[in-house]
């Protein structure tokens, strides 16, 4: 008996940023299909792919995708893979629902692992501007009232926290949840 296919979302880091490491989304979708995944769909150019897989969990799929991606494109991209249930929790647990209507000012950082108390404390010391953040498990929620582009604190998050991560604005989070939910109901 084969496993029931599950819906996953792959979040790529470091592709199509500033004209570097260009990967066309049509090529990325084909890559997923060639690896045997179903119901493949991408969202915007920064590397977001919704797909269906009957085999593997999120961590196993991330390792496989990273290795195959590097073979095909010749450079490494960290890929965070999460399932539909994880995305549902991400949205449901938003600690800043009052700013969800301003999707360019609310961001979710997908963390490779939950940070330690010391790592969080180190980051909290750096949060001296108008931003505020909260960490719930392997997600850092950031409210940047002046937008991410003007946030000094946002640039400090990866190197201060020292937990591999990739960020998406709230509009992207909601779009990916909708796409994954649509595929999950198929």
TrEMBL record:
Pfam families, per database record: DUF1697 (PF08002)
Domain of life assignment: Bacteria
Cross-referenced InterPro entries: DUF1697
Family matches, as Gene3D superfamilies: SP0830-like domains
PANTHER family per the UniProt record, alphabetical: BLL4334 PROTEIN (PTHR36439), DUF1697 DOMAIN-CONTAINING PROTEIN (PTHR36439:SF1)
Name of the molecule in the record: DUF1697 domain-containing protein
Organism: Mesorhizobium prunaredense
């Amino acid at each position: 008996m084969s496993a029931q296919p599950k819906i996953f979302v792959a979040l790529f880091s470091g592709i199509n940023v500033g004209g570097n490491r260009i990967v066309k989304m049509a090529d990325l979708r084909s890559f997923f299909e060639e690896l045997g995944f179903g119901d493949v769909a991408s969202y915007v150019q920064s590397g977001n792919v919704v797909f269906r897989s009957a085999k593997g969990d999120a961590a196993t799929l991330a390792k496989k995708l990273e290795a195959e991606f590097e073979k095909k494109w010749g450079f490494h991209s960290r890929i965070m893979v999460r399932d539909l249930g994880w995305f549902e929790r991400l949205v449901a647990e938003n600690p800043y629902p009052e700013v969800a209507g301003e999707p360019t000012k609310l961001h979710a950082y997908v963390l490779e692992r939950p940070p330690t108390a010391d790592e969080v404390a180190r980051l909290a010391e750096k949060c001296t501007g108008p931003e505020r953040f909260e960490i719930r498990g392997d997600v850092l929620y950031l409210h940047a009232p002046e937008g991410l582009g003007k946030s000094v604190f946002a640039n400090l998050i990866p190197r201060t926290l020292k937990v591999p991560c990739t960020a998406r604005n709230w509009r992207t989070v909601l779009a990916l949840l909708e796409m994954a939910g649509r595929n999950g109901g198929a």
